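Model: Ready when you are.
Researcher: Fold this.
Model:
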Amino acid sequence: MTKLSIAAAAISAMLLAGPLAAQTSTVPGTSGNIKMSHSECEAVWSRLGGAATDNLARAQAETSVSDFKKADINNDGKLSRTEFQQACDTGLIRTSASTGTGTGTNGMKK
């Protein structure tokens, strides 16, 4: 191989790997969970009702927390705003309750 073809191959490999690396960004020690932005975490906190009560009961949080025991640092059965934010920072919070594929319907009447 010539120097030019080696350089072209290296550039191609970097271009292909770049988007893949960006899509799989994870927080170490979180089993592949993707970390959300602060605004996404705040939106989930509000959607679950945390803003109204300043904490979330296990039943409220379970749909969006992948490991409630790990998130509930003081083991009191609820998540404070601080615990929730720490769970977000470590990738334990999901943006939605969905855990599988959709049904393929969009809810519009025919």
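Researcher: Now this one.
Model:
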Amino acid sequence: MDQAAQTCEVACSTVPKWIRKYRQWEVQAVRRKGPYLGKVPQLSPEQYQEFRAIIRGGPEAVGLDTGVWTAAVVAEVVGKRFGVLLSLSQIRRTLRKLGFSVQYPRQRLSKADKDYQRTLVEVEFPEITKKSMNKVVF
């Protein structure tokens, strides 16, 4: 079976599936239908262009009071705008496909200077509170 998989350029686990299908449905079940092209995109090309424009405009342009896009926020905006539910991983893949880089938070912030953090929150940005930072408004 390993040689058959290698010859057909498929995974070793695919060959037994083909054999089962052949035994059940004969040749029609295993006839090659062409390469698997993946799922049909949920957004049209025009919607992808609008999606790109929304991301470029920033969260404030769609009425959000945050300066940073997160995958969860983008998923919610896409859901409301286009009526499509995309997973967070699909949002990240779509952003990469549209030419955006996806950034992940660094854990080193927990090691930051606590006194400096307190100064920023209490003196420089007094209007920022935990409640307003976690709240997303559409």
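Researcher: Key takeaway?
Model: The mean pLDDT is 79.
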